[in-house]
Amino acid sequence: MSLQASLDLLQHSPYFQQVLSTYQQIHSIIQQLDQQLIFNLCFLNHAFIIAIIIYKSLKSHLLDSSNNSNNKQQQNIPYVIGLLLCFALGTGGAILNALLLGEHQIYFDYDNITFYFICAWTLVIYSPFNIIYYLLGNFIIQLPLYLLEGYFISGFLMNAIDKGIKLYPNSIFAPIILGIVSVTGGGILKSYFINLYFGKSLENNVLSKPNFILKSILGLSLFYYISKYILDKNEYLIDLNVLLNVNLVIHVTNRNVIEGYFVVLYFYIYLLTHFGGSVVVVNKKKDSIVSGSGGSNGKNDVNNGIVVVSSEKKELKEEGKKKKKK
């Protein structure tokens, strides 16, 4: 069967029409909901994802420290340090942008944000038998959580660029910088403070070796800025009849493109986290933590849209043995 015939069959399929109708109904219901309620639900989900990431990262760093020292007893995860890292990673973009703009910090303006981080971190670290950690870390439960997180993070970039345009209408660079920082700020602060706490090199961070995802944030910021504020084009009609000879027109907006990218990105991160194959070690020098993440014992980690890869547990053990011999 040809591609055109397959697409025609899909377009007229009752199942496809039902899925499309259901999606439109769900989207209509969401639009009618209280926007403040949606924000609170998204941020609560954001807080728990951040708490899980910080828990994995600290656990991995403490394990590395115990393997590389004479004391084999692993230390407990420090509550206050973890909570501060949750704020750093979860609101890092807002923290840095507020410093750049000379504004109030977001967690001082909204007590519910502080409350969500405190509750999420407390439940993750102190729940009986680590039930919250294992429940939210389950690959079935994490799929919708990560997709929602991707949708939520996309708003950080667009809102920061819109704000930059309002504050600095004559500047090209200000909106772009604010947009990039809004998404990558958490990863920058997390790697800095973790390296500082564990005595690692402060030069090892997510900016030291930019990956494709970090560069794509720049591309998305440029696309949103140019299309909306230079070309003054917010909507696009994609006629599949021209591309694939299929009588179907897709209507998308600038926001749809940004939201779609981040949802796909977090789906990719989800797949790497749970089903990733070989682990790429970026830096093999002694005492190094790849991108300052720490990861989760050989699994992939995420810093506000930036994938960072941890070194393998086996390699860390070998480094510890070499130190002991010396």
**SSE string:** HHHHHHHHHHHEHEHEEH
As a percent range, the share of strand residues is 5-15%
Tally of helical runs: 14
Largest sheet: 2 strands, antiparallel
Low-confidence stretches: 277-319
Portion of residues in helices? 55-70%
Task: Give a count of the beta strands, DSSP E runs of length 2 or more.
Answer: 4
Task: Walk me through the structure.
Strand 3 (300-303) and strand 4 (306-309) form a beta hairpin. It is built from 14 helices and 4 strands. The protein is globular and about 70 Å long. It has helices at 3-11, 14-32, 35-67, 79-90, 92-101, 106-109, 111-126, 131-136, 139-167, 173-197, 212-230, 240-244, 254-275, 313-325; strands at residues 235-239, 249-253, 300-303, 306-309. A two-stranded antiparallel ribbon has the order 1-2. Strands 3-4 form a two-stranded antiparallel ribbon. It is mainly α and 326 residues long.
Describe the structure in brief.
By secondary structure, the protein is mainly alpha-helical. It has 14 helices and 4 strands. Strand 3 (300-303) and strand 4 (306-309) form a beta hairpin.
